[in-house]
Amino acid sequence: MTIDKSLKVRSGMIRNRNVLTRAERITKLLEADRWKEGDPVLGIPKTRVVKVSLKKKKKVKKEEDAPKDKKKK
Question: Looking at the 3D structure of the chain, how many domains does it have?
Answer without folding.
Answer: 1
